[in-house]
Amino acid sequence: MKLSTSLILSGLSLVSASPLKRVVTNTTSTITPPVGKWFDRFVVIVLENTNKDVTFGNPYFLNLTNMGMTLGNYHGTAHPSQPNYITMVSNTLSAGVYDDADHNSTEMSIIDLFEPAGITWKAYMEGYTPLADGGCNPITEDKSTLYVRKHNPFMSFDNIRNNTARCQNIVNAEENFAKDVALGAKAPMYMFYSPNLDNDAHNTDIPFAVNNTQYLIDTMLLNEEFMRNTLILLTFDENNIYINDNFGLPNLIYTVALGNDTIKCYDCVDQQYYDHFSQVVTLERNWNLSTIPQPDGSGEGMDMWWRPFGQLRAADDNICAYAPCSEYYDGKSPAPSDGNWEDQDY
Length: 346
Ligand SMILES: *[C@@H]1O[C@H](CO)[C@@H](O)[C@H](O)[C@H]1NC(C)=O
Ligand SMILES: *[C@@H]1O[C@H](CO)[C@@H](O)[C@H](O)[C@H]1NC(C)=O
Ligand SMILES: *[C@@H]1O[C@H](CO)[C@@H](O)[C@H](O)[C@H]1NC(C)=O
Ligand SMILES: *[C@@H]1O[C@H](CO)[C@@H](O)[C@H](O)[C@H]1NC(C)=O
Ligand SMILES: *[C@@H]1O[C@H](CO)[C@@H](O)[C@H](O)[C@H]1NC(C)=O
Ligand SMILES: *[C@@H]1O[C@H](CO)[C@@H](O)[C@H](O)[C@H]1NC(C)=O
Ligand SMILES: *[C@@H]1O[C@H](CO)[C@@H](O)[C@H](O)[C@H]1NC(C)=O
Hints:
It holds the Pfam family Phosphoesterase. By secondary structure, this protein is an alpha/beta fold.
């Protein structure tokens, strides 16, 4: 982290967090962000509670795999919903958040790595109404808009929820997403998107979720400038076989990566084992960040153990670019991966 003392002293508030030297809690700064190894922007959209084969059975979701890379062996990390979301932005399964209730965690998240590095971020929550000053609205749910806190992982972290500057990055999706995509190259470098309970298939089903999902995906794909070096991950929180168990049982979900600048092939499949931890690890490796330390500074968390997505395309790597790789996906049966994730030097 190249962070000069003068920058730090110029009005940014700090909390101590070893082994990270400093955690900046105000993103208004001039820190030059790192150049991504595989991508300059990461967008994740999280849908809900659907078994992988059910999603693949839908013509729209199947179509999307033709446009990108299926992560054919991607798993949710828990049941019920909330811990899955926590895992996507944190380095531990729980952070004290093992169920769907409201939790206030003192643990750290990926945001604590992003801000000192100058990586811009925003979370888009459908149906969410922030407080008047943009502060975090900790309500459990809004029955009229179908927003729920359990699908907004950022709200669980004290050092986000208690910090107005950070809260201002958690916004109402309907008002802000298309507007921010239209910023093109200037859109946030990390974008986390939670649809409402209808649009994410939670209260509905996959055919219902198509309309809004297609709107989101098309909004991005139609903006060439936005898509430059952008990786989109469309995933689910968990499958629909509810067993109150963290690990051990398969929790296979549909996940597709889109963005021809950033993945090695389209209409292809990577069969390496991944789960929600892989997101954080991929982000850390992409931007050469450290891992997320434990809140007491006592060393590394689970992000040390996991693999980043292995078939991402570095800028100088033209292999498979814009042409199908050998890992061709025929829309019916995922092909085996060549397992060469080691070649990514993570
Ligand atoms: C962030 O810090 C800048 C520079 O000190 C300050 O002007 C700005 O008001 C702060 N923003 C927030 C939201 O606190
Ligand atoms: C799938 O893609 C094909 C070819 O682009 C298109 O004709 C068809 O309408 C798409 N189907 C859905 C459900 O999106
Ligand atoms: C990637 O490129 C292929 C070939 O041009 C195209 O069919 C596909 O839609 C593209 N995918 C995305 C996400 O733009
Ligand atoms: C967690 O924080 C919220 C909002 O700040 C507060 O209303 C709630 O009482 C807290 N819960 C616990 C268990 O501390
Ligand atoms: C953050 O909020 C929680 C719950 O509202 C509270 O218990 C805690 O003391 C706050 N932490 C800080 C650092 O303000
Ligand atoms: C489809 O989604 C768009 C964007 O969310 C929304 O404006 C429109 O009302 C939806 N259409 C239907 C039929 O639900
Ligand atoms: C990544 O970070 C490490 C430690 O912070 C540094 O030594 C190394 O030079 C960085 N690598 C790149 C490619 O920036």
